[in-house]
Amino acid sequence: MLFSLIENLERLDIVLASVSPRRFELLKQIGLEFKVIPSDFEEEIQHQSSIRDLVLHNARHKGLFVAEQNPKALVISADTVVAIDGQVLGKPENEDDAFRMLQLLSGKTHQVYTGVGLFLKEYEGLKLDTVCTNVTFRPLSEEEILAYINTGEPFDKAGAYGIQGQGALLVERIEGCYYNVVGFPLTKFFLMLKEFMKHYIIG
Known about the structure:
Elements: E1 14-16, H1 21-29, E2 35-36, H2 51-69, E3 74-84, E4 87-89, H3 95-105, E5 109-120, E6 125-137, H4 142-150, E7 171-175, H5 178-182, H6 186-197
Parallel strand pairs: 1-2, 1-3
Antiparallel strand pairs: 3-4, 3-5, 5-6, 6-7
């Protein structure tokens, strides 16, 4: 397993500060052993100076909330948003909102940003980084949008689609990390973790 290459990792409890089923599944897929402790931090949805700053802010505070309560654990946090022309698209409130979002994305390129955080409170350890993937939708007819909404898939997903499900049929191409669009950039996470753990000797 690749995680065996990371020094001292086996000495730590690992906590995912997220209840996202997609992040849970992705981390299990790569063989990481962890437990889930959700963060009570209420994430912001309006970006500050930039959308990168927004996802970094949310990832930082989600992780810090859980790290304060679990100082000896390695805490992983993340925040993912979908944006087009500087506008952040959250999870749709209803069918009309989902239709509006999908019509907005139709035939255009949008961005998926994820902020990733690593925390080791006992050692005052903190590392944050971001990933951005460009996603281009093919032009969608109203009939296709309504049919996709009727699958129920859009309603728990930012931007009203899931690339790992039937939403894959809406996507023409992507530039960047596919897993970032699903909800967690696995390669970036592994490289961050490998670098992060070099700085600590866990007794």
